[in-house]
Amino acid sequence: ERLRERFSLPGVRGPAAMSDKKKLVIKPFRPHSQMDRNQAEATWSQLRTAIKHIHNRNASTLSFEELYRNAYNLVLNKHGELLYKGVCDCEREHLNAIANSVASTPDELLLGQLSGCWSDHQDTMVMVRDILMYMDRTFVAQQKRTPVYAMGLILFRETIERHPQVRDRLRQILLENVAMERAGQLIDRILMKHTLAMLADLGIDGLSVYEEDFEAHFLGATRNFYHSESMEYISQNTCPDYLTKAKTRLAEEQARVRHYLNKSTESKLKQIAEAELIERHAKTLVDMENSGCVAMLHHNRIEELKDMYELFSRVPGTLEHLRLCMCEYVKKLGRQLLQDQEKTKEPVDFVRRLLGMRDKYEHIVNYSFHAEKKSQKALKEAFEQFINADTRCASYLVLYIDELLKSGLKGMSEDEADAHLEKVIVIFRYLQDKDIFENFYKQHLAKRLLQGRSVSEDAERSMITKLKTECGYQFTSKLEGMFVDMNVSKESMEKYREARRDMSSTRSLDGKPTLDVTVLTAGYWPTQKIPPCMLPLELVPEHKAFENFYLSSNNGRKLNWQTSMGSAEVKGLFGANRHDLIVSTYQMCILMMFNRAPTLSLREFSELKIPDNDLRRHLISLCTPKHRILRKSSKGKNIADDDSFTFNPEYTSKMKRVKIPLVSMKELAPATGGDVPAPVEEDRRLLVEAGVVRIMKARKTLQHNDLIAEVTRQLSSRFMPNPAFIKKRIESLIEREYLERDKTDRRMYKYLA
User: Residue 583 pairs with which residues in a beta bridge?
Assistant: First the structure.
């Protein structure tokens, strides 16, 4: 309550004594006695003496509290200008004396002398700054002057570091030290670090002393050094040696930044070193004969390729040289592989070598190039370029798969078989004309299924599943339908044999031939419209029996016998020898005719109604030196129209069961390499027309180029249609009035509903 009453104002009542009124008394201001000029000069003289003691390292006798109070009083009494100017003059005088000493120092001692002076000056300015702290906060801030410590650094820079006899010598000594270290000599890194840190600290007022007095000259010297060294080294050494040298030099420069260079120099130094050591010579290194990229790829030097990739990855633009070299080399190997195949005619070996080549370069990309996406894409494009040069690779791949599924996978575990098939799928992905592959694959699958040559049904189905995953259900629907037909046929034959067994209870079937029929759905199998041949009389009853049985249980269906696709087992008596001959249906019909006569002319076989080319092929297959079942009247591989054939009773073989293979007829299946099979060509025509109609029905109107692009995009998963081929199909659709051209713009198409 007493406090409240003491400070209460007139007219304001306190809570305890509302009736008492006390007046607030304000006494007149008594001005502080001002420090005159003489007193200020005397005070500054004391401060000046103290600063000199600090310069002379005799600060222990000083009272910093008294010195601070004196400086405080000077600023408080409006003598800040005197104090600030006096301190500047005192520091300049002191530094001028030191500058003369430093300037006369020999080159070998200059860095040490300058470093010592810099350390002493920093300590001096810290003490002076503490004494003049009040001046920094008030006078300096109000008058927008440079703070005392910063002023001391500026004076040191202008007086000592940039002294005419110091600045250039200092820079030269620093650069010489760097050059000595690059030459393998030892230098005082700590002294270098201290000196360069001094230059960085002296850039106190926005002026970059470090950059102007050292860095710019250092970077220029670095560029010149690495330019000359790299040119000399690359001309005298191999590519791997140069890569090792460049890698070492870059590591040295990085260590140089870590040990004594300023952090701001790192990116600039890195850019210059990489430009001179890598970017300038990247293409030369890649193309270097006997040791460059091609030699590394040829000799599978994956560690050297890895070193090259890792070095080039510092300058991403140079990696394109590496990718392009690999791509061109793989293309060259691919073309050479195709040329070798033309000479050797070994499709399976071709695919084996292709798979080995692909495994090799995939490993290089994954290991040496760190599985870089662009390198993987370049490798993929290289394989696609030579694999799609013509249709041969599609057919060769099918033949390789056929060999795998007939015998190649025998004895392998499920995982091993799957790994082999997965490698095939990788090559399949490179194919653009997948419809040609499908056509060939369907033919060989049909032979394997009908002849029972598959090593494993699980492997067959696994291959179909992989193709389905790659291309969709439509691609494999017919292939899967072939398996369905085989299973249905087995069931049908079991029922037929059961019915025949019931029949045998009423009459004997001993000595009669047996029949095994596979019923095929016409749309699934690669069948040809070839009329059936005339079967031997011994087979006619069995033939009729199965046909009656099947049609009686499958109303509305029609059976077309494909005798060109069948096989038979015939018992042959050759004198005292007896052999079971495994032959085609055509060969069985031919051989059965020799039960009537030992010699027959070519014309007599015409009653079998076998196509002439097939007849000649099957006849010549029975006349080969290895399997001379028949003797031909003329010599040579060809059959003349007047040739006759005689049964050879002297035929012998070490095997009880003998398979008679068919000779290949090159004239019937020319290997041109670029032809598209006729069924595939017809399918393509229908696919393109269906695609055009489907697109135009949705769009109604469309420009020519847009229509070509959209059709190509939609069909690219099966084959790559030629624009001229698409245009031809468009013209056909216009003629049949599915489309019409716009009357004002001939390149615009309209859909006709």
Answer: 568
